[in-house]
Amino acid sequence: MKVTVSHQDGMKFEAKTEKSSFIIDCPTISPVEYFLAGVISCSATDIVLLPKNQGKTVSNLAIDGEVVRNEEQPRKFNQLHLTYRFNSDADDIMASRWVMASLETYCSTINTIRDTTEISYSIIHNGNIVCENQKMISGGGAKIDLGKIESCPS
Predict the structure, then answer these.
(1) Is 141 domain-assigned?
(2) Exposed site from 68, 71, 132, 141, fewest CB < 10 Å?
(3) What pLDDT digit, counting tens, does each position of 90-117 carry?
């Protein structure tokens, strides 16, 4: 995978991927918000594709992501909570398995941050609360003190 980001003007940047391109308009949407949207979109694709591969359908999918970040630099994600809301023609157990498969195995963005970020989730399936504030089985966020790191000269 390769992405090239080039400055356009002001605080606008163009991101070019191997397949397409898009404009990043800071501070209208910050790079961290784009990152969080990417994390959520990665999992959302799993919640659509996994059921499809099993002959099931998902509708009305919405995933909320709420992040707690460091107050000081580096302002990394400390905690991420995802709330999955969707309907499907499967039972609650199968719906939970799709979410778990995404979180623990398939979603590469979540798997990239899980060792440094405590990740929890809730599932509302067909209007029923299936689980609330469950923690991921793996990962859980490391408590590593990096100390003071000098930034690049301004």
Answers:
(1) no
(2) 71
(3) 999 999 999 999 999 999 999 999 888 9
